[in-house]
Amino acid sequence: xxxMKILYIFLPILIIISIFVGLFFFIYENETDNQILxxxxxxxxxxxxxxxxxxxxxxxxxxxxxKIKNNFIHLxxxxxxxxxxxxxxxxxxxxxxxxxxxxxxxxxxxxxKSSYCNDKNNKLKVFVNDNEDKLMEKYILNDLDKIxxxxxxxxxxxxxxxxxxxxxxxxxxxxxxxxxxPNIESSCTSDGCKVIENG
Length: 199
Ligand SMILES: [Zn+2]
Ligand SMILES: [Zn+2]
Prior knowledge:
Layout: H1 2-33, E1 42-50, E2 53-54, E3 73-76, E4 79-85, H2 92-98, E5 102-103, E6 107-109, E7 115-117, E8 123-128, E9 131-132, E10 146-152, H3 158-163, H4 169-172, E11 188-189, E12 192-193
Parallel strand pairs: 1-10
Antiparallel strand pairs: 1-2, 1-4, 3-4, 5-6, 6-7, 8-9, 8-10, 11-12
């Protein structure tokens, strides 16, 4: 009889707890896994400077046009100033990885294997919207970010480099229509993205 009493009291409580736990995981799973590609379409302006030289990303090999290098994040239409994100949570590291470049807080290794690592003279730094960001490669991109990655000595003029970051993301994300219509993109528009299979 005593056991039955305990069951009567605890069973409903146990059932309620299970339902809540189940519900939590259900919602959590759906929020993390069910990001639909193309639902997000964000842009960030960026520049990379290596020893006072601007690095040119407007090269065919870095573009996702006929052949998509990466569906989640990429460069389009020979424009090496503007990163397109099609999913939330993209880090700088993942962006560079997608175009064959290794980047972490100590080293930058280009696709041609040239490496630029922190030493006693030169350091890698990341600036997001004019402020140094210590997260470096772990920084998660946001819409309209202006990002500077720089490998230079301490005499380097950061302000000069920051000045050259373009201001295209706002137009391309449709956030400042007064400045003009977004450019038509090879595989994506501000309404969404046509996913092309990796080829
Ligand atoms: Zn875009
Ligand atoms: Zn795209």
